[in-house]
Amino acid sequence: VKEVASLSLVSSACEVVSAAYASSKESQPCLSSVCDAAERGVQSVTQATASCVQPMLATLEPHVAAVSEYAAKGLDKLGEKLPLLPKPVEQILSDTKELLSSRVAEVKEAVSS
C-alpha cells in the first residue's frame, strides 16, 4: 500500500481529490457539517477495528510479508509496462495536451494542403 501510495500518479491524484474535497467543504456549509460527521464516524470505526484486528495481524505477519513482497514485484513489473505511473497527474495532463495539440496541428496541415 505504501509503494502504491508513493507513486507520483497516485499521490498527485489524491492531492487533487483532497483539494477538491476541502474546497467543497469550505464553500458549502451544509456539506461541511455532513462531511465532518462522516469523518468522525470513519475515525471511530477505524480505531475500533484497529484494536480488534491488531492481535490477528501479529499472527498473520509472516504471510503479510510474503504477499507484500510478491505485490512489490508485481508493481515493479506494472511500472515497467506503464511508464506513466511514476508521473504526476499534472505532467500526464500536460503531455496529453501537447500530444493532442501536435496531432491537431498535423491534421490541420494535412487538410489545408
TrEMBL record:
<dbReference type="InterPro" id="IPR004279">
    <property type="entry name" value="Perilipin"/>
</dbReference>
<dbReference type="Pfam" id="PF03036">
    <property type="entry name" value="Perilipin"/>
</dbReference>
<dbReference type="GO" id="GO:0005811">
    <property type="term" value="C:lipid droplet"/>
</dbReference>
<protein>
    <submittedName>
        <fullName>PLIN3 protein</fullName>
    </submittedName>
</protein>
<comment type="similarity">
    <text>Belongs to the perilipin family.</text>
</comment>
<dbReference type="GO" id="GO:0005829">
    <property type="term" value="C:cytosol"/>
</dbReference>
<keyword id="KW-0551">Lipid droplet</keyword>
<dbReference type="GO" id="GO:0010890">
    <property type="term" value="P:positive regulation of triglyceride storage"/>
</dbReference>
<dbReference type="GO" id="GO:0019915">
    <property type="term" value="P:lipid storage"/>
</dbReference>
